[in-house]
């Protein structure tokens, strides 16, 4: 079994429901246990600014799925939520699931980079990840709690 961390995001449709449904789907993946989930945060768009705010969250999983198999499961959950991958980076989406880190695993393939190379740059990832694993050390990037102190979290607010 491996500890895995997944980021969730949505800014189209009923974003909160898409995220809650995705968390439920993650919890019932084969050979997988949902260990923790963050609060849901409202965050400004990143990369492509002319779009609605996002809702973001993160979960910690204990899983026997290998990273590429877990990635395939994440992509299936996205498709079920109506996610269309049309090549537009950072655009609006019903659901985005990013495999951030699998403890003890480094992957550099066409489909997957672990740990995710941009964790340290993104408040919308670090805030929810801090909820579930503040002391997590991301190899080559640092501890989540230290990385969070170095990013601008202005405009990021937890939902009630």
Short recap of the structure:
27% of the residues lie in helices and 28% in strands. With 160 residues, the protein is an alpha+beta fold. It has one domain (2-158): Alpha-Beta Plaits (2-Layer Sandwich), CATH 3.30.70.
Labels describing this entry:
160 residues, alpha+beta, Alpha-Beta Plaits, six-stranded antiparallel sheet, 4 helices, 10 strands, globular
Structure commentary:
27% of the residues lie in helices and 28% in strands. The chain contains 4 helices and 10 strands. The protein has helices spanning 15-27, 67-80, 123-132, 144-149, and strands at 2-10, 32-37, 41-43, 54-63, 96-102, 107-108, 113-114, 137-138, 142-143, 157-158. Strand 6 (107-108) and strand 7 form a beta hairpin. The model has no long low-confidence stretch (mean pLDDT 93).
- Oligomer state equals single chain
Element order: H for helix, E for strand: EHEEEHEEEHEEHE
Rg on CA atoms, Å: 14 Å
CATH topology: Alpha-Beta Plaits
Structural class estimated from helices and strands: alpha+beta
Compile the SSE list and pairings:
Layout (H helix, E strand, L loop, with lengths): L1 E9 L4 H13 L4 E6 L3 E3 L10 E10 L3 H14 L15 E7 L4 E2 L4 E2 L8 H10 L4 E2 L3 E2 H6 L7 E2 L2
């Amino acid at each position: 079994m491996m500890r895995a961390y997944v980021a969730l995001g949505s800014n189209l449709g009923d974003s909160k429901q898409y995220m809650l449904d995705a968390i439920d789907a993650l919890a019932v993946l084969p050979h997988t246990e949902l260990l923790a989930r963050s609060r849901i945060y409202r965050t400004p768009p990143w990369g492509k600014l002319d779009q609605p705010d996002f809702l973001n969250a993160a979960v910690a999983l204990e899983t026997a799925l290998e990273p590429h198999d877990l990635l395939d499961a994440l992509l299936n959950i996205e498709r079920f939520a109506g996610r269309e991958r049309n090549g537009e980076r950072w655009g609006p989406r019903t659901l985005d699931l990013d495999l951030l880190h699998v403890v003890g695993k480094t992957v550099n393939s066409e489909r997957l980079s672990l740990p995710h190379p941009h964790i340290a740059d993104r408040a919308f990832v670090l805030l929810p990840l801090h909820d579930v694993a503040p002391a997590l050390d991301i190899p080559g990037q640092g501890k989540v709690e230290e990385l969070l102190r170095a990013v601008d979290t202005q405009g990021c607010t937890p939902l009630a």
